[in-house]
Amino acid sequence: MNRARRATGVVTILITVLGCSKPGNNGGPKAESPSAEKATFVNRVWRVAESTDVAPGLLCVFLSEGTLVFASPNGKPALGTWNYDGKSLTTVEEGIPYRVDILGLSRTEFRIRSHNPGGVVETRFVPAQESPLRRDRP
Fold it and tell me: What pTM was computed for the model?
């Protein structure tokens, strides 16, 4: 199975599983929204809409138990961890922790600023759209 197909499979499974489950509360911040349900970045599949350093289209999921999943159509999915203590968000990628500022959060947008060793990276996420399963190969 090629990498792109594997990444698509992982993302499809995540969208299916998360779409059928209730959002958990890992302490992630929630913002007021017009609906009765509050916005959260946890257990949602987000797609990078724009960033100062991350390729648009990358998918990201902050799973409620602390796993961070990245998936790209151009590479193998990657795993990290995350923690939110009520005041600050920290992500850990390849063993390196990054302090992350939450700039905005709504049901339709999640904006962050990550303090990486190479500099500050700002990223705007939007909810990933479900796409049909690829059936182009047996």
Answer: 0.70
